[in-house]
Amino acid sequence: MAKVKCEFFSEVLGISTSMTVLLPEVGKNRIGMAGAKKKETYPVLYLLHGLSDDDSTWARRTALERYVAELGIVVVMPNGYRGFYTNMQNGEKYFDYIANEVPSVAQHYFPISTARNETFVAGLSMGGYGAMKLALNFPERYCSAASFSGALDIESYLKEVSGDAAREKMNTFGTVSDFLGSENDLFSLAKKVSNEAEERPRLYQACGTEDFLYAHNQNFQTHIIEETNLDLTYDEGPGAHTWDYWDEQIQKALRFFEL
Question: φ and ψ at 161, to 5 degrees?
């Protein structure tokens, strides 16, 4: 794989920002890694980071490059800051940035397919929330989405946090009444997609049983099973909010995507 650090100006955020991109290589002479088949355009995985990370973290803390080397897929890892991939109540429009500007910039510079059946999104923690949010707001764009240790039950999160965390979440989502039924509410979005969408994304959800977000993930899984007819694959087992767990889960998600 070729790894590119793409630095660009975001018109939405009004700042210079970046994305880290993995691109397929066709070469056959590298020891220990095979190449991909040459194509005009490649499927794309938008891979989102967690609250304390940036666009470089997935490539630094997992063997992601090795996992995707033979799959012939472009992996786009944008910098999402601490914005929860959300148009904040008091702040920047991170959802407009991640949903529209990042794909537009990536498609401009890199050989990325725009076909729905070749477009995937995944993420961990805050990024797991962002991945589900993108797929459920735009089911016509994404064929599959995966969340690892995702912050999926934001309503409960808003009610539980206090201090600086509560102030940050208030700036992001507003009050619980602001949040419920909005483009940020995964539970409401899931029911809407289930009832109204012509195309529905396949969903993969994973959370470790020792994770502090485990109960929230159980709540989301129960909602999907009992209140929707969406196609959800759920995986749980021993694991905490750690990179050992996410390194394992990105491999499972790549198999789930059936690339």
Answer: -75, 160
Query: How far is the C-alpha of 125 from the C-alpha of 147, rounded, in Å?
Result: 7
How many whole angstroms separate alpha carbon 144 and alpha carbon 122?
A: 9
| pLDDT tens-digit series, residues 142-174 | 999 999 999 999 999 999 989 998 899 999 999
Q: 186-213 burial, b for 16+ CB within 10 Å, e for fewer?
A: bbbbbbbbbeeeeebbbbbbbbbeebeb
pLDDT at position 34 = 76
Give me the phi and psi of 182, to 5 degrees please.
Answer: -90, 180
Show the domain range for 163.
2-256
Q: Which candidate, 53, 76, 54, 52, places its Cα nearest to that of 64?
A: 76
- Report pLDDT digits (tens) over 53-103: 999 999 999 999 999 999 999 999 999 999 999 999 999 999 999 999 999
pTM: 0.96
Domain count of the fold of the chain: 1
CB atoms within 10 A of CB 51: 16
Distance in Å from the first CA to the final CA of the chain: 16
In sequence order, the 6+-apart residues with CB closer than 8 A to the CB of 165 are none
Cα–Cα dist 120/44, whole Å: 6
CATH number at residue 245: 3.40.50.1820
Instruction: For residues 17-38, give the mean pLDDT.
Output: 85
Give the chain's length. Answer: 259
